[in-house]
Amino acid sequence: MEAQLQRVLDGLAAGHSPRDIELLNVDVKEEPGRRDPTGAVLPGTAENEAAAKYLTGELACIANTPGAGAIILGVADDGQRIGTELSEEWLRHRIYQLSEQRLTVNVRAGDLGGTRVLVLQPPEAVEPIRWRGRIHWRVADNCVEVDAATWMAGRLHRSGFDWSAQPSGYRLDDVQASAMEIARRFLDQAGSDPAAADLAAATDNDLLRRLNVVDGDGRLTNAGALLFVTTRVPAIDYLRRDHPGGDSTIRVRREGPLLVQLAEVETAAAASNAIVQVAEGLVRGQMRKLPQSAVREAIVNGVVHRDWTADAPVVVEHVGDTLTVTSPGGFIAGITPENIITHPSAPRYQSLAEAAASLRLAEREGIGVDRMVASMLALGHERPEISELPGPYVRAVLLGGSPDEFWIEFLADISPKTLARDVDLLLMLDHLCRHGWIDSLRAAPVIQRGEAEARAALGRLSEAIFVDPLVTEVAGVPAGEPMAWRLSDVLLEWLEHRLGYRQGEARQRMILEWARARGRVSSTEVADLAGVAQNYAGKLLTELERQGRLEPGRPNRSGRGFFYRPVGG
0.85 exceeded by the pTM? Predict the structure, then answer.
């Protein structure tokens, strides 16, 4: 927590706006009640009742969030340092009173370039803290309402309690033969995996024991009951529509063993997942509009990692070539959309996740998102969109369509061949097609790794070959500045249809992204990135200056090495 807090404080000190540097558990706010009707800032006071009430609600929300967090008070959304004169002791005591003695907050003063700010840190709640009768916690960067049962389920998970490993009311005699048949079918689909073949050949009772879903007295665990007997209510609701707004043509919603439900949904999804022909000479002649492996990962992840204390089903909407999986329960154990590809395995229900992995339904070491991302990007589709919604729910969206034949052929001809399956390389190539350039600072969040790992990944990318090297250094970068890369001229021509940043407003956004990230931009850099002549690059920069988005780096606007700066730093 302290490291995250310091990172945000350092960003504010460097002049970044809060929206660019706020983290899930660290929020930046100005003191409420400090502006007049015209928006002008009013002088601060030692006591501010409106601020205390507002902060009590926000801090209750943060305390209810796993890992808790902090608020930095005294900076506006646009980065203006308004500061605060609130008394630390008064504010701490007033929040304690307003929260009905439930919230004891650490309040300390800090200095931000001569501006006094306050850092407010509540401890993580051991029981849900209500504000005005409601429980809230943070989802992404918003406080959303949550029910007590969902909050308590998250608390139990963090304490190490595994509901799926507890005894159920079912015994071996209750196991459904159809579920056992499907379990063996999933194992047989594992191909040449000898451990899977050995498990499939075991007797029913031995298979269940090796999955650790039955105890010595023949009682099934909750994981075993879900997989092989029944779910309390339908666990999956699959809807197929041929186009948005159309009537459903297929619906799968039933009770029974979870394995049976999964098999029926997978069959329905495969039947609606069109097969298309690709040109001769490519790696494969037929492909589906959505990779079936990604479809399975999305559905299985939604089912295995959902909150089983909720009665709502996992909703699978298959509309056209888009698959959307929405599952009850938010992210857990520090997982966020920004780290989900590389986050270590942290299942909500360990026993259920291990049984699914043993049945070859899901990964044992992770949550399969990296494979889902790689299989989508390998066909030229967008990376899966995974987000947390109020409720909370987790939603995964797969946008399919006809595979990109030029992209597939390009990946097939990359040397060394292993890089075509490297999820880091695929993510960076996708980013380059959309944004035009990449460096280690930008690559780190793209591949969801640290900067050192990002530099190593860029090293692998720079060594890959497709006729020529895949990438080349951006021209015009001043000596001593970090290297940045763009696609090679050969790839720019081969993948021209995928380049979304070289015309109109998209080109302006690319130039401004470069200027803001690098602190400056020159006509040489723009000419290289946009593929235009240097004099035309100068005109593009002049237009952005006219719009008030760039300013000259020198008052005389001339001389060798002349550049522009982004307005506002």
Answer: no
